[in-house]
Specification:
With 159 residues, the protein is α+β, with helices and mostly antiparallel strands. It contains five helices and five strands, in the order βββααβααβα. Helix 3 crosses helix 4. The protein is globular, with a radius of gyration of 15 Å. The mean pLDDT is 92.
């Protein structure tokens, strides 16, 4: 099942399967591409909770999400995504730092970047908090403008 909500990033499609969020997509929405999508259900409890929490996050009233998540990916991607969730609100980390947290060398930073780019649940799994080693904003599946907006939203909320 899925729902759509307005946000400062544009419309977001939130996808649920088996009682957990499996994707958050930026518009323009792509076809389901093999992923189960199902029917639109704005009243589904998990989807309703996701909309409420995302709305509070964008209003700077929520810093940590409490949602059931089930991102689909390889074991390495799952490890990277778990590390992304450990990067706190208003904080950033580099791809190399994430690689080190996984017990890998800087050589794995590129693989971390690729896994980061495949994160199916942006915002809630905060891939926007991962930046280049020199502090620059690097690629973001939703576009650098969205990444910058998310980072600015979190920084503004801290002061």
């Amino acid at each position: 099942m899925w729902t759509v909500m307005p946000s400062p990033l544009g419309q977001l499609r939130i996808v649920e399967l088996g009682g957990a969020i499996t994707a958050i997509e930026f518009e323009p929405f792509r076809p389901a591409s093999g992923r189960p999508l199902g029917a639109r259900r704005d009243d589904h409890p998990v989807l309703r909770s996701a909309v409420e929490q995302l709305t509070a996050y964008f209003a700077r009233e929520l810093k940590e999400f409490d949602l059931p998540l089930a991102p689909q990916g390889s074991p390495f991607q799952q490890q990277v995504w778990a590390q992304l969730r450990a990067v706190g609100y208003g904080e950033t980390a580099s791809y190399g730092e994430i690689a080190h947290r996984l017990g890998r060398t800087n050589a794995a930073a590129r693989a971390v970047g690729l896994a980061n780019g495949q994160n199916p649940i942006p915002v809630v799994v905060p891939c926007h908090r991962i930046i280049g080693a020199n502090g620059t904003l690097t690629g973001y599946a939703g576009g650098l403008e969205r990444k910058q907006l998310l980072l600015q939203l979190e920084q503004d909320a801290l002061f």
